[in-house]
Amino acid sequence: MEKRSFVFDYTFVPESSLLNPQQKSLLDAALSATYQAYAPYSLFYVGAALLLENGQILKGANQENASYPCGICAERALLYHYGNLQPKIKILKMAISVSNNQLYKESPVAPCGLCRQVISEFEQNNGSPIELILGHPKHACIVIAKCNNLLPFVFNSEYLSKPV
Questions:
Q1: pTM of this prediction?
Q2: What's the whole-number mean pLDDT along residues 5-30?
């Protein structure tokens, strides 16, 4: 047996004013998307924003439903929207923000497991890393160089080859 570790680096930014202007602008866009969220049950308003290679910014927000499984997280809503609109334009960065007064802790909210899986496949199809910015424009942020760092041992298309 051999013990192995999975370790990755990220940047902790104690206040968003220390982000570079492009990152800060994208995080602001993610926060503005939270106001489009439909979250009457959880009161957990999440917004996400993508920066595309052509400079365009796309935004999305979580959408709940009284039948809970019918809802969708902001990250997946945004990525599926992007997939319908601009699937050939590379994604450079993704920012995720929450507008909920009780969530301003040192560590910003990270994507759920379902979203990590979807983000990972979009990053694989992107052919290059997608920088991830987690946080709130008035609080601490985390910057992760590539989304796949959040999902070690990802299930991807390589497992779906034809049977032997």
A1: 0.91
A2: 94
